Amino acid sequence: MTIEDLGYNSELEKYRKEFNLDSFEIGRVILEHKDRYVVKTKNNEYDSELIGNLRFTAESKYDLPAVGDWVAISEYDDHKALIHSVYPRHSILERKAVGKQSQTQIIATNIDFALIIQSVNRDFNINRLERYLTICHDSKIKPIVVLSKIDLIDTSELENILEKINKRIKDISIISISNLFQIGLEKIKSKLTKGKTYCLIGSSGVGKSTLINNLVGKDLMITGRISDSIDRGKHITTHRELIVTENGVLIDNPGMREVGIADSTIGLEKTFETMVELSKDCKFKNCTHTTEIDCAVIAAVSKGKIDTHFYENYLKMEKEKEHFELTVAEKRKKDKDFGKMMKHFKKTRKSNKY
Fold first, then answer.
1. Distance between CA atoms of 54 and 31, rounded to whole angstroms?
2. Do 107 and 231 lie in a common domain?
3. pTM score, two decimals?
4. 267 alpha-carbon distance from chain centroid
């Protein structure tokens, strides 16, 4: 295996030279567990930890390694290494952190394509699919929709699902598969390219780990059988993990119950491009497309030119984004006010000494 098989490229090499990191070995984070990381190089894998300076100078989670990151390391013991630096990222796939209004959660970094997997029997939800597309578009990651478990429904049901997707989402690559009967796997393999990174995202039990095993040709990931009571696979993956294959780098993820929208202006505009184009004909530039007169979007919905559910999902996600931005602004103001208060307190305390 070469370092290029891991996804290394000329831009990373340029950064390495520019910042004098030649004395360190370069590797990629393939597994993250609390404050420890498994880093893969072209020859070895290292149980790694951060040097103290990197840990204590980190201002946020964005300064710390995540699965998919390139890092500069030095070996200090057999298969053990220290992480000295994190290379710049060309993409960050993230979502609003569950239960934390003003925080985001990094899913993985340096991703080229996202395989958005939904099972067609019970998991399929086009509103959620649009959410996945939004976070992908916001990160400038090319999405590929994968409909799994097609062996559990008949042909007419599958055609109905495909029709729904094509009606609401334009110019999207869709692949229908059955992990059980190996249907559609060759189509996915044809999309994979050596050196590119593919992140698998979706709910629990849709078959992400099974798909990786089928693509690789051996059981690398632990999988669970479909439950008879709930008619879906059991949740198995508990952490993010990067797997290097002959046809690209795959990142498996735990199932996401919630896909919260954060600061996703670009993502929303790309996912709901039809809405954006129509809004140019609205009477008011700041039209919210809810109650305004001469709103081109509302007119299109009333005439059936835009799917009602598509329109409602857009409004819901736009409101969620605005709420996130407002929460972030409020948090920044509180932090700023607290800083001023502490500065005043120190100044007053100092003057009282004299």
1. 19
2. yes
3. 0.84
4. 12
CA dihedral 282, 287, 288, 289 (to 10 degrees): -20
Residues 22 and 80 in one domain: yes
Section 137-156 average pLDDT: 95
The residue range of the domain holding 301 is 265-330
Residue-wise pLDDT tens digits, 19-45: 999 999 999 999 998 889 999 999 999
Q: Is 299 exposed, middle or buried (0-12, 13-18, 19+ CB in 10 A)?
A: middle
Structure tokens at 230: 């709930």
Does residue 32 fall inside a structural domain?
yes
CA distance 219 to 6: 20
Measured from the Cβ of residue 58, the count of other Cβ atoms closer than 10 Å reads: 14
Please report how the helices 155-168 and 126-138 are oriented relative to each other, as an axis angle in degrees rounded to 10: 50
Q: What is the rounded distance in angstroms from the CA atom of residue 86 to the CA atom of residue 54?
A: 9
Q: Do 86 and 63 contact (CB within 8 A), yes or no? A: yes
Tell me the helix, strand and coil percentages in the chain, rounded to 5: 40, 25, 40
Contact call for residues 120 and 45 (beta carbons, < 8 A): no
Three-state secondary-structure class, residue 192: coil
